[in-house]
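Bumping with the actual sequence this time:
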Amino acid sequence: RSAITNAWNQWVLGYTPDELLGRLSIDYFDAQDAPTRAWIEAMMRREPFENVVIRRRCKSGGKIWASVSGAPMFGSGGGFQGYRGITMDVTESTEAKLKLEQMALHDALTGLANRRKFMDRFEPATARMRRSGAPLALLAVDIDHFKRINDAYGHPAGDEVLVAVGRILERTVRRSDLAARFGGEEFMVLLEETGVAGAVEVAEKLREAVAAERFEVESGGRTVGIGVTISVGVAVAERETSLDDLMERADQALYAAKLAGRNRVRVEDQAD
């Protein structure tokens, strides 16, 4: 149990003394992330801790970040009495750091992961594939005739389409999957523990969702509704592979989908 934060919870988080009575400081955590769990485990072992950054939940519903440091206190008989330490509000600096990390790992236009984040994710994904024996799939997604959209309606309209397609990708794939923009009108989707059938199913869902959407874009001072389609190439790895190899195979399947008439899904085995 921590005796550090009662007054802090009252004055900074906005709770009344009655609302704090009988409660632990961990009741006001916003998330049980790895640093928070490590901090709790350190306290359970009666160990000191320093500058552990955790997110706290205010009574108003807002969130703040706090840096906590503490040392255990023991009585003359060696019995544990609690912790003495410091809690500091570090919301401004932490959110600034998170914003920089967001900018470094996400596409500025669509908010999806960028190439760097995708590459960082790929290596641990292949390590999990080796351990579990479950396949790993990659979807190469490209917006059909994107240049025509830019030429007909202007680049701002093209950007609106990219953002809208990115949202469709993000809401269609599983939370455990990763959708990324690789540049221009090209996207990649990493699907863990997914074989050919599962990857094709996701690819078809994406294709159908985009084809069913009516994209509202601003052009020439008026709102225009346009239809957009995508082509998708599917590649699957069942053993050790490199990102470059899997991307090349997915791109070949994507090229086959384009040659076959666009607005369709092709698997690498069908690319010839």
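The tokens above came from a reply further down the thread. The longest strand covers residues 63-74.
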